Amino acid sequence: MQIGVQIPDFTFPGGPPGLGADLAAIARAADVAGFDFIAVMDHFFQIGLIGSPEREMLEAYTTLGYLAACTSRIKLLTLVTGTVYRYPGILAKTVTTLDVLSGGRAWLGIGAAWNDEESRGLGIPFPPVAERFERLEETLQICLQMWRGDETPYVGRHYQLERPINSPQALSRPHPPIMIGGGGERKTLRLVAKYADACNLFPGPELARKLDVLRAHCDAEGRDYDEITKTVYFIYDVGEKGEKAAQVVDQLGQLASMGFQAAIGAVANVWEITPLEIIGSEVIPAVAGL
Predict the structure, then answer these.
(1) With a cut of 50, which residues of the chain have pLDDT below it?
(2) Residues 31-57 pLDDT 10s
(3) Looking at residue 48, what is its pLDDT?
(4) CA separation, residue 224 to residues 180, 197, 215, 227, 262 (Å)
(5) Element (H or E) spanning 264, and its range?
(6) What is the dihedral of CA 155, 156, 159, 165, to 10 degrees?
(7) By C-alpha distance, which of 214, 224, 196, 221 is closest to 258?
(8) Which residues of 39-72 are buried (b: 16+ CB within 10 A; e: fewer)?
(9) Nearest 5°: phi and psi at 231?
(10) Torsion angle, CA of 148/151/156/160, rounded to 10 degrees?
C-alpha cells in the first residue's frame, strides 16, 4: 500500500507570510518519511466541505512546482485538475514541465470539474456536464498524443490543435501517469478503463461495487484491470502522539484487501510536521507489504 498526503487547505496558523516556509517543511518531511505522493487540489476558491470561498487557496501547478524544488523523490500531482480550467495543449505542457523539472515525478490527476462557483467567479467557461465529459475525453487524447511526440493536427469537437509540439518531452516513460478522479459509473470509470493508469475513488459503502464496475469497463475496452492502480481518498488522523496509528493501519489494511494500492489524502494538523513523522515511522512500514 502506497501512502500519499494531500494538502487541501492553506489556512495555516502562521498565515500567508509563513505559507511558503510551512509548505516547504511539509514537503521535505513527507519526502523523508517515505510518502509516495504529495498532492494539492486544483481549485481557485476553497470548497465548501472545508471552509468559505475566502479562505486561502493557492494555484495548483505553481504550488507543485515549488514543492518539486523542495523534494527529491516524492511523486507530484493534483487531486484532481478540472478539465475545463486549462486548454489541453497548455495542460500537457504544464505537466510535462513539472515532470522535466522534477526529474520525472509528475502525474496528471484529472476529472470533469464540478465547482461552478469558482468558474463563474473567475470567468471560466463552465459548460453542462455532458460537454465537460466530452472535453475531458478530448483532453486525455490530446495529452497522450503530445506525450507520444505525435505532431499531426488534432481535430475534435471542442478542440483543434494545428501542430501539438511538446518539447522538451516528458521524462516519465511512456508518459506521466494519468489518474482520473471520480466514481461515476457510466462515464468516469469508462474513461479510466480506456485511458488512465490509475483511478481515485472516495471511501464509502459502494467502494467494492465501484471496482466491479471498473472491471466490467476494462473487459468491454479490452483492458487489463490489473494494469490500473486503484487509489482511494483517505484522511489520516494518527492522534497527537500516534495513539491512533494502529487504527489507521487497520483501516488501510481493509482497503488493501479490497484491492486498493494507494491511499492519498489530508493529514490532520499537517503543518505541525509531527503527524507526518508518525506516519513515516508507524504507518508506512506497517502497510508497505499490503
Answers:
(1) none
(2) 999 999 999 999 999 998 899 999 999
(3) 87
(4) 17, 11, 9, 5, 18
(5) strand 262-265
(6) -40
(7) 214
(8) bbbbbbbbbeeeeeeeeebbebbebbbebbebbe
(9) -120, 155
(10) 140
